[in-house]
Amino acid sequence: MSVTVRIPTILRTYTGGNAEVGGEGATLRDVLAKLDADYPGIGARILDESGKIRRFVNVYVGEEDVRFAEGLDTPAPQGAQISIIPAVAGG
């Protein structure tokens, strides 16, 4: 399924500065694998060594936070917008 992936500023060095890129896959896991294949290294910034979404990275499929859905197995329907949003902290 064809989707759009919104890339946060901090990861745009991997996508040649593009804020949005196309993606494909039936699930979020598939989309992220394709994203990493197209833009090598970006996957390691989103997923940890065990293959889980990093603690300070939020991922949405449409309006849904995948942590409260099916995680990496969240379906990625045709035309969905996937947003990768790094958490912001400060003090």
Automatic annotation (TrEMBL):
Stretch forming the signal peptide: none
Alphabetical list of InterPro entries matching this protein: Beta-grasp_dom_sf (IPR012675), Mopterin_synth/thiamin_S_b (IPR016155), Sulfur_Carrier/Prot_Modifier (IPR052045), ThiS/MoaD-like (IPR003749)
Pfam families: ThiS
Protein name: MoaD/ThiS family protein
Organism: Actinomadura luzonensis
